Amino acid sequence: MTATDTPTETAPTVPWTTDLAALQARYPKVREPILAALLAITQNPGAELDDLKKFAAKHGVRITAASVAAAERLRSRQDDQPAVLTTPVLSAKTAARRPPPAAPAAPVDAEALIRQVADKIQAAGSLEAERLRGAIRKAIELLQAAAG
């Protein structure tokens, strides 16, 4: 191995390490496999799960389907935030296999959601109250039968 071979072999790791450190600083409470999956997704758009796993494994991080799913959720929340990452690694052919991201969901009426939750809680409370009334009636009947 010559002195000229070393920079070529370590060059792919330097952006990964730098980008992963930047993500860890940005998201200090997120586990490393999720951040590594986010980095792999960003650097390899359209890559399949096995390709993402191999890519992360080359950098010493084991990711799973759950890590990738969590990374995709995290990525979807990054709408207006600037990109931290450097260059994509996989080919355009691999990128073409991934479907385009889904459109954002329609706005939600918060008041309607609150009312729905309140109605569910009230219905559950009513069912529990009726169940307790029935149990009390049975207890009274048993006591009356035993006493009389």
Task: Please explain how this structure is put together.
- It is a single chain.
- With 148 residues, the chain is mainly alpha-helical.
- It has 2 domains: 5-95, no CATH class; 108-148.
- It is built from 7 helices and no strands.
- The longest helix has 38 residues, at 110-147.
In short:
By secondary structure, this protein is mainly alpha-helical. It contains 7 helices and no strands.
What distinguishing features does this structure have?
disordered N terminus; mainly alpha; 2 domains; 148 residues
List the topology elements.
Layout: H1 5-10, H2 13-26, H3 32-43, H4 49-58, H5 65-76, H6 92-95, H7 110-147
Helix pairs in contact: 2-3, 3-4, 3-5
The helix tally amounts to 7
**Mean pLDDT metric:** 77
Helical content stands at 55-70%
Q: Using the CA coordinates, give the radius of gyration.
A: 28 Å
Beta-strand level of the residues, as a percent range?
under 5%
